Amino acid sequence: MTTELTPTVLVYLDGDPTRAAALEAITLGRELGDVVAATAEPPTEATRETLGQYGVTRVLRLDAGETDLRLPAVVGQAVAAAAEEIDATAVLLTSSFVTKEIAAHAAHHLRAGLLVDVGSLHLHDGRLAGDKRVFGGTWDTSCAVTTARGVATVRPNAVVPEPAPRPASAEPGVLTVSVTTPAGLELVGREVHESDADSRPSLAEAAIVVAGGRGTFGDFDPVNELADALGAAVGTTRDCVDEGWLGHDAQVGQTGVTVAPRLYIGAGISGAPHHIGGMSASGTIVAVNIDAEAPLVEMADFAVVGDLASVLTDAAEAIRAHRGG
Ligand SMILES: Cc1cc2nc3c(=O)[nH]c(=O)nc-3n(C[C@H](O)[C@H](O)[C@H](O)COP(=O)(O)OP(=O)(O)OC[C@H]3O[C@@H](n4cnc5c(N)ncnc54)[C@H](O)[C@@H]3O)c2cc1C
């Protein structure tokens, strides 16, 4: 009689390990095998409890000694070392600028195939495989790595985070990893942007995005009001960034942030290909525009033809009334 070993899945948790994007990666990881989490910071009791509810069997803090575990090139080495140590079949990360860089370094060190921005995962002949939307949302593709071990970054909002049917113990542990900072690389400064980060979800991971374009004429009050009523992140177009109305951090599109929220509301945005390339994987797209023939109106699941100032303000008021606030 042969017994098949359950694959081990390493999920590297950057930032807050219990935020939605991290729990989504864990939820997908559970479909592949036993999930072991790795963190750079020691997890709190509350963090371990939450991770246990999502089926994480072990939480390993990566100890790199004196080496700074903030540079993606170094974290990638540490993640690769952890994957080798626990013999992980798959290594999963969330999908931000930083984690994609970490994933690339980890894949390089493991000599493993890399899948970026996948929305679902499975094992194909024992190898990591996933589905992803590409070319501005015009194609859905399936891809599989050809190496025994695979690395993947999970697109935010790809799945609803689900607690495990049976909670696990999330046993704490420390894994000492031997890593070196590559020659010529030094972290000389680090600046955390204040912006609205404290009160609003991050644009790349938000479940709802309200974006305003040049149709706002620089007045983002209605956009902010609706975003706050919905608990959404605020996005914009490059033209508004060029005008200095919002910072580049808020730009959605080909040369900005790629978003795939469950709900994207674009107000006063024409829907240029450069913008659509960064939001077309969104679940439901709503457009608000005075022009019924604007490309974003034509591609939207739902459109309101009207002045955004009144439409967004009325919508925010109705949502607040509905929520009794
Ligand atoms: C190399 C390159 C890279 C680029 N990268 C990006 C990118 O990453 N992201 C990006 O967004 N753009 C990018 N662009 C710019 C892009 O091509 C468009 O110019 C830009 O997206 C248009 O922004 P907009 O929709 O805000 O403005 P516009 O195209 O001017 O559209 C404004 C819209 O507002 C509507 N409107 C006007 N008044 C109202 C009102 N009162 N109520 C409701 N609607 C109203 C109008 O009908 C119109 O549809 C890039 C361009 C280049 C050349």
What this model shows, in words?
This protein is α/β, with parallel strands linked by helices and 325 residues long. The protein folds into two domains: 8-176, Rossmann fold, CATH 3.40.50; 208-322, TPP-binding domain (Rossmann fold), CATH 3.40.50.1220. The chain is 27% helix and 26% strand. The chain has nine helices and 15 strands. The chain has helices spanning 20-30, 45-53, 72-85, 97-110, 221-230, 238-243, 273-276, 295-299, 308-322; strands at residues 8-13, 34-39, 56-63, 90-94, 113-118, 120-124, 127-134, 139-144, 150-154, 171-176, 208-212, 233-236, 263-267, 284-289, 302-305. Strands 5-9-4-1-2-3-10 form a seven-stranded parallel beta sheet, with helices on both faces. The protein has a five-stranded parallel beta sheet with strand order 12-11-13-14-15. A three-stranded antiparallel beta sheet has the order 6-7-8, with no helix packed on it. Strand 13 (263-267), helix 7 (273-276) and strand 14 form a beta-alpha-beta unit. Helix 3 packs across helix 4 and helix 5 (221-230) packs parallel to helix 9. 47% of the residues are buried. The model has no long low-confidence stretch (mean pLDDT 94). The chain binds flavin-adenine dinucleotide. Residues 213-215, 237-240, 251-256, 268-270, 272, 274-275, 278, 288-291, 294, 307-308 line the site of flavin-adenine dinucleotide.
